[in-house]
Amino acid sequence: MSEAARSLLQRWGASFRKGTDFDSWGQLVEAIDEYQILARHLQKEAQSQHNNSEFTEDQKKTIAKIATCLELRSAALQSTQSQDEFKLEDLKKLEPILKNILTYNKEFPFDVQPVPLRKILAPGEEEHLEFEEDDEEGGAGAGSPNSFPARVPGTLLPRLPSEPGMTLLTITIEKIGLKDAGQCIDPYITVSVKDLNGIDLTPVQDTPVALRKEDTYIHFNVDIEIQKHIERLTKG
């Protein structure tokens, strides 16, 4: 095992235990934060190119499935429906798999599929994108250069429950101005909250693809709910 892989697995393991500890203690907001941040890191690794990764393709598939389970547990904590939810005891079964990912060769214990990530494009790659044709007639915005088709729905999360004495933050993005707005393809905005070291403090959220473009403006009209109370954010 390389030093880079060892360090990565240690960080993942610490984050996994931190999330399940919060979950066990009933600190659901903190557990959701930790699960979603770790899921994002695992998905990023699973999507990485072979020559830039410490893991084989089969190992990355398992990593991606663990990320899916983290997302499922996070969703269960935010849901009022208890039926068919992904339970904490189920999630804990994955800790030894993640810890021993380099030697794990058994069937994954849950029937889940990796959650696809939005493709990360290299500079200039946009012009090579291939689009699926819409077979439905009269689709919204069809043929209009000033509207965008409905594509990726985004990863916006719901507003956190209110707590006495705690402050929630909502960021509203109405529109942004760009000199070359007309050249943008499926534009979206990623919102993240980081500490001074660049570490994510809350889950990273992507807006849906913009509603339309108008002159030098791209219109979004969305609210982003920051997934941690202001008082719980690290100062600085």
UniProtKB/TrEMBL annotation:
InterPro entries: Aida_C, AIDA_N, AIDA_N_sf, C2_domain_sf. Gene3D superfamilies: Axin interactor, dorsalization-associated protein, N-terminal domain, C2 domain. One of its GO terms (cellular component) is membrane. Keywords: Developmental protein. Residues 157-236 form the C2 Aida-type domain. Coiled coil: none annotated. This is AIDA protein. The lineage of its organism: Eukaryota, Metazoa, Chordata, Craniata, Vertebrata.
